[in-house]
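Changelog-adjacent note: as of this version, every example in the card shows the full chain rather than a window. The one below runs 198 residues end to end.
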Amino acid sequence: MKKKRLEIVGMSYSQSQTGAYALILGAPGEKRRLPIIIGGAEAQSIAMELEKMKPARPLTHDLFKSFADHFMITVQEVLINKFEEGIFFSVLVCEHLGVNTEIDSRTSDAVAIALRFNCPIYVYEAILDEAGIVMDDEPVGDDPEAGPPVEEPVKHKGKYADYSEDQLNDMLKVAIEKENYEEASRLRDELEKRKPLG
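Full-length structure tokens:
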């Protein structure tokens, strides 16, 4: 079966399920998206890795990575291989001493692990055709024909506007030490917004 590579496009609160998030995956160069409903813990783990935030203690997916590294196991790829009754199923394609093995996984866990191993995420094209949606926004990935992106000037508003960058960095450190990762994520976003353009 033909496979399509996917990239993480974004993540947002789920409008349909309380306490859940929608993880949006997209095929590079296309407007097709694969929305996957995931739990809060998995969303936090994915966001932490995307933002390169280091928790005070390892999260479950960090532990999996350390365990695999210790025993010389690598994850070669993640494959979303089944879609039944609205649920996505995935496998981790692992390699150990030259032998490949497929391990069943929830898709949310598989994506969190793929990020930590820096390995590709694939989906069977038939699943993307069945469960994918076409969005009106820009295709995923860089367009070689396009020039550099034009960025709007940053306007600082919101609850952190009155804090200096040093204060925000101190607050970020405290939030991570207290394992308040949602607050840490918001603080990291505010600091990113304040970086000078270019």
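Structural remarks: Residues 67 and 127 are 31 Å apart (CA to CA).
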